[in-house]
Design goal:
Length: about 400
């Protein structure tokens, strides 16, 4: 069993003052758990190593998919393939993503569940709220695996300095480049996440602005605009697979903008490859001996407890848990049944005394940079709770 300790909560008033209005779930229960998961130094190091090793495998797998034109196998929309290839060939910077892992505590091996590479959630609570929870309880806030802010700030600077490790030469002559940040209206978590990223970019030295997706202007020749200001970079918290389904011509405009290098898009289009759960099958085929990977196929796995998931989807929607005989143990409805499915071998999660499961989320920005946990029963869905941690 994992170990947790109870702590005093951060007040709702304080959370709302810093812009975190999603502190309470729709069923009236708290989203943020007033407990800390105990993590040892060795366990934190293991999560860090797992994220770094897994990202290297994704890079190799991404090249394999592109070289062998495996886009259909990953359910990649045809109208994004050229942008994916171009962003890959240009080495466009992957700003940040989040790995979901089973295991890692209580002696359980770390196993990759999926990679939220394009539009990952829980950034603000991982980077800020769990740090503040330690501080509010008189604990040393350095006792966390949590360098998210610094890691993403360095990545913003790499937009200018290139992909080397040294970002110290972020010369003032480059600091007038600007970034537009966008999310959809009426989604407070997305908006707070985007404005948090905007603050990091501003601290990194960029000129920044925010506009809702519907207020952004696109020119196939000149790039991306807001309030008549042209931007060098555009960060959008809007999934690439959803952009592909838009009927207002935005996909074609972004294709032209990309081709003419009129604006750089963040996260780049190739992160859609990483986001596809079909990549789990590709990874397993390429690296069958990796200790971090689970068997994943496009057909059910005979005689194994397993999880069926759609290629694209969020917060556990359309996930089905099967026992080794193929009996459905639990299913989560959703709106993603138009996508193909993958079948992934089940991996045990660390559990507490009440039998609740803990899924580790490790953020990646150039390297593993932050750890947080989601707590649920069988399947981690949109009612999962966020649990902070402390290194003991």
């Amino acid at each position: 069993m994992i170990k947790t300790e109870a702590v005093q909560p951060i007040s709702h008033q304080l959370m709302e003052e810093v812009g975190m209005s999603w502190h309470t779930d729709v069923d009236g229960t708290a989203y943020l758990v007033n407990e800390l998961v105990h993590v040892t130094e060795d366990e934190a190091e293991a999560y860090y190593a797992a994220a770094n090793a897994t990202y290297d495998m994704f890079i190799a797998a991404g090249q394999h998919v592109i070289d062998n034109e495996l886009f259909f196998e990953l359910d990649i929309p045809f109208n994004l393939i050229s942008q994916i290839k171009r962003s890959w060939d240009n080495d466009d910077l992957h700003l940040y993503g989040r790995f979901d892992f089973a295991g890692g505590l209580d002696g359980l091996p770390i196993k990759l569940i999926e990679f939220n590479a394009d539009t990952p959630t829980s950034l603000f609570e991982t980077a800020v709220v769990q740090w503040a929870l330690l501080k509010a309880n008189g604990m040393d806030e350095a006792h966390q695996f949590n360098t998210v802010y610094e890691a993403i700030q360095h990545n913003f600077r790499r937009l200018i300095t290139g992909l080397g490790d040294d970002t110290s030469d972020f010369s003032t002559q480059y600091q007038q480049q600007n970034i537009l940040f966008s999310s959809m209206p009426d989604l407070p978590e997305d908006e707070r996440t985007v404005k948090f990223l905007q603050q990091i970019a501003a601290d990194a030295g960029f000129q920044t602005d925010f506009a809702y997706m519907g207020d952004v202007a696109f020119s196939e020749d000149d790039g991306i605009f807001s309030s008549e200001t042209r931007f060098d970079y555009w960060f959008k918290l809007f999934p690439w697979e959803d952009i592909a389904l838009e009927t207002d011509g935005i996909t074609g405009l972004l294709e032209d903008i990309s081709r003419k290098q009129a604006c750089t898009l963040l996260n780049p289009a190739y992160t859609l490859l990483f986001q596809s759960k079909g990549m789990m099958k590709v990874l397993y085929e390429l690296f069958p001996d990796s200790p971090y990977l689970l068997e994943t196929q496009l057909e059910p796995l005979p005689g194994k407890k397993q999880v069926a998931k759609t290629m694209f989807g969020r917060e556990g929607a359309n996930t089905v848990l099967y026992d080794a005989m193929g009996k459905v143990l639990k299913t989560i409805p959703g709106e993603y049944d138009n996508y193909r499915k993958v079948y992934q071998e089940f991996a045990p999660f660390p559990q507490d005394e009440e039998g609740r499961s803990y899924q580790a989320g490790v953020f990646f920005a150039w390297e593993g940079c932050g750890l947080g946990f989601r707590r649920a029963w069988d399947i981690h869905d949109d009612l999962s709770k966020f649990v902070s941690h402390r290194i003991v």
